[in-house]
Structure formats: C-alpha cells, structure tokens
Write a structure and sequence with these properties.
The protein is mainly alpha-helical and 324 residues long. It has helices spanning 2-28, 33-53, 61-84, 91-111, 115-138, 145-172, 178-182, 185-221, 232-249, 263-270, 272-289, 312-323, and strands spanning 253-259, 294-299, 302-308. Helix 4 (91-111) packs antiparallel against helix 5, helix 6 (145-172) runs antiparallel to helix 8 and helix 10 (263-270) runs antiparallel to helix 11 (272-289). It is elongated, with a radius of gyration of 28 Å.
C-alpha cells in the first residue's frame, strides 16, 4: 500500500519541484514570460497525475478531467518552448490531434467500453503532440545547441511513448478494470518512464534558459542602455574581430567618429532627461544607418561607426548623411 502511494506521488512531486525551479528562474529573468508558463505547465502536470493516482471523482469523469489538465500541460509546454526560440506554437496541429484523440477516447469510454483502448488512445495522442513540437523545433535554421538537444529528446520520447505502451500491454494482456490497471506492470512503467521523460525535458529546458540568461548578461555588459548601441567594451571586441577579418580578406574598412554639437548646452538648458532623449534618438539613427556595420557610444556624446568594405569617399558620404 505504502509502495503504491509513493509511486503515485512520484510524478506530482517531481513536477512540482520542476515548477518551483522554473518559478525561481522566472524571478531572476522575469522579462521572459515563457519561463513562468513552464512553471504553470508543470503545475498542471502535477495536478493531472495526482488526479490519475488519487481520484477525486468517479470513472470516467475523473479520467476526463485528468486528461483535460494533462492536455493543458502539453499546450502550455508547446507555447513556452517555441516562444523561447521565437516560433509560433503549432496550435492548429495540437488541436487537431486533441480532437481526434478525445473522439476516440470518448468512444472507448461510453460506446465500446474498453480500458485498454483508452490507454492506447491517450498515450498515442500525447506522443503525437510531442512529435508536433519536435517537428517545429527541427525546422529552426539557427537553433542553439540546447534547442537541437531538446528536439532530439522530444523525437525519441514521441517514438518511445508508442513502443512503451504497446510493449507493456503485450506483457500485461488486455486490461479490463481500473483496479487491474493500478496493479499492472503497464501502470508502473508508465509512471516511472513519464517521470524520467518529464525530468529530462525539464533539465534540458533549464540548461537552455541558463544559457540564455548568461548570453543576455554578456550582451548587457557590451551594450549601452541609453542609446541601445555597443558600449566601449563591446565596440573594442567587435572591432578586433572585424580587423582580423580585414587582414585575412584584404577588404577596405572605414571608421567614423562623431559627437553631438552643443550637447552640454542642451543638458544645461533643458535638463539631463532631455539630453538622454537626444542620446537615445541619435543612437537609433546611427543603428539604422549601419545595418551591416558596427555602431557604438564611446562615452558621453561621442559615437563611432565602423563601415565594412567602405573607402574614404563612402565614409565621407555616411558622415554627411548622419550629420543631416
């Protein structure tokens, strides 16, 4: 009895630990809403498995509610994963899979009452949802290593869900009652493997989020917050890379250094808030004028731009354009 309770608590407790971890990461990186979506998704996962293992309602109402919450988990998870990489979630595909899956589930609940059929339908429905998310991730052209690892994990999990379900049912045979299912090897394997899959996906996402936070901090250290351009440190780093490339390819390179005339008088007359707006406005102009170059604020009202493959005449035209 105690053993079955502990096994029943495995997925909910593990999911709540993951939800707490994502909530902590969101407190660190609160601008990224997808992180709190991941936390909510794992709360839904914990609730769904809690209902499955400790029913509050009779069958089939409890099963429908648990699966509805678990479906919500997959929708939230898909949205969060693909928001992180700047892609739309495949809600059309997920909805289509859910409609087909629930139609079959209702059939085995109310028409051809078959618990084994319900188990197969539910697992294949969620496996198809995992495939849909993995397919969207594999279409990324410039994905990060964590994205490629996550896509591979999801593809493997999608295949495993089907193989696992059919294999365990082949061992246990036809399952007729919920009591038989609760004590079956199928239920035991499903619980443990689900926990392992959820933990693997969560840890992969955590590693990706941590890598994103580190990249964000590095970018912030190289960026001037007022103008949105590179700061002196970022400019020196980028300039070093460009100079090495120039030595290798032998292409021309131009450096334009400029400042804002009478900027001190603007601050003195209209206040520093107005001066900050001037810096931000000029930074936007300079950034838009150098889509393939480097633009930086060196300090105060001093700015610089590096123009790749530009000669002296091109640099002069650029300077006149910025001036006007």
């Amino acid at each position: 009895m105690i053993g079955s309770v502990l096994i029943g608590l495995l997925n909910p407790l593990l999911a709540m630990a993951c939800a707490t971890l994502f909530a902590v990461l969101w407190r660190v990186w609160w601008r990224q809403r997808y992180v709190i979506e991941l936390s909510l998704a794992f709360v839904a996962y914990a609730a769904a498995f809690s209902l499955q293992n400790f029913p509050l309602l009779g069958d089939p109402a409890n099963g429908l509610l648990a699966n509805a919450i678990l479906t919500g988990f997959f929708f939230l998870l898909a949205h969060a994963i693909l928001t992180r990489v700047g892609r739309p979630a495949p809600f059309v595909h997920l909805t289509g899979i859910a409609i087909i899956g629930y139609a079959a589930l209702l059939w085995f609940m109310f028409v051809d009452r078959d618990l084994t059929g319900r188990i197969i339908v539910v697992n294949f429905m969620y496996g198809a949802m995992v495939f849909a998310v993995a397919r969207a991730l594999t279409r990324l052209r410039n994905g990060k290593p964590a994205d490629r690892v996550l896509a591979a994990i999801l593809l493997v999990c999608g295949c495993y869900v089907g193989i696992r379900t059919l294999g365990m049912l082949w061992v246990d045979g036809h399952i007729v009652t919920l009591a038989q299912y609760a004590s079956s090897l199928t239920k035991l394997v499903l619980d443990f493997s689900s926990a392992l899959v959820a933990l693997t996906v969560a840890l992969t996402l955590v590693s990706g989020i941590v890598a994103d936070i580190i990249d964000d901090l590095r970018e912030a250290a190289r960026t001037d917050p007022l103008s949105g351009l590179l700061n002196r440190r970022g400019f020196d780093e980028k300039l070093g890379v460009v100079l090495k490339r120039r030595e290798t390819l032998g292409t021309p390179l131009a450096l334009v250094v400029c400042d804002l005339d009478h900027f001190k008088s603007i601050n003195d007359r209209f206040g520093h808030a107005c001066g900050d707006k001037v810096i931000a406005a000029f930074g936007k102009v300079l950034k838009e004028a150098t889509p393939n170059g480097i633009a930086a604020r060196l300090g105060g009202e001093e700015f610089a731009a590096v123009l790749a493959e530009a000669n002296l005449q091109g640099a002069n035209l650029f300077a006149q354009f910025i001036r006007t």
